[in-house]
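Researcher: Go.
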Amino acid sequence: MKKFLEGSWAIAEMAKKCRPGVVAAYPITPQTHIVEHLAQFVADGELQAEALNVESEHSAASVVLGAQATGVRSFTCTSSQGLLLMGEVVFCISGMRLPIVMVCANRAISAPINIWNDHQDSISLRDAGWLQFYAENNQEAVDLLLAGYKIGENPRIMLPVMICVDGFILTHGMETVDMPEQEEVDKFLPPYKPPYKLDTETPMSFGLLGDPTIYMENRFAIQKTLEDVLSLIPKVAQEYKNLTGRETIRLIEEYKVSDADLVIVAMGSVCGTIKDVVDAQRVAGKKIGLLKVVTYRPFPKKAISDALKTVSNIAVIDKDISLGAEGALYLEVKAALGAENKVSGFIAGLGQRDITVKTIESIITATSNRTSSCEFVDINKNILWDEFKVI
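Model: Structure:
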């Protein structure tokens, strides 16, 4: 059923349809609307779940960890400093192989305080052992949320999933969303039946001491499972397409890449603007394309390499920076291709600095000229930063 919804409402409604038994979150801008709507669903009897008020994001993560460990499907959401406060528990959740789904309403990290969007929060926890999906629009956000439970709860996977949606741009934006009916969701996502849980009838423990004889094996097992996820996602994507007709579950999306001379690589809502620029450039006779990364963890190295192997110029746009190095996506694309000389990196949109059509056009020009390996770009102030120097 198609509905015109605020992104947060659409996400909350899809979370409700996934039938979590426990919801715990602490309000933080711009995530707050999601947990507010879910609390209202519980209060109105539309969702049979425990909606728990907690004193911090650390507590919210701890609550869903405990609930999931007892065999109850759980949901949480957060943003920015809240995600960082969860950090200790986030690592515990993956280490215990608990397939919780979390929505991260991406927001810049302090200091200075900034409540607006970039990807620094989720990127900073990219090594935590969670799957990470990045949505371009709210339709993708709700579809990825449902698929996240399906993938994470697979008995061969049993890992947590983070659905990353751009704060304010998506969470507070109004879009038409085709929401699956409850019967369709139930068909796609059966009740949660974990292969292990805390149970007095069959006692077991979670998160015990991992001494040097077993700790490395634990890390290795998570790594191997994430590699297995790369082959599972296309299968789940086909099942979801058969159910809904939509191709929103994927590793990457290739937009006019096959014959492109220059391809932009990016994640999240900025891809909508890039598609508009690609279309305009094509009309002008320039072969520009977009490779949108949807699945960032596990990183789809082979899919990206196969898509870009014949492309002569590549521009990677990051809405984050690994301070002291470069953009996180740029670093990984370079490594996947093994061809640094044809990849240019750009840091844009930090703290929700506007990324306009002109910004994208300036990136295309800089990539064609290969003026630098990694640049800060803000065409709206008519400056291009290279190594923090105005040029």
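Model: The chain is about 40% helix and 20% strand.
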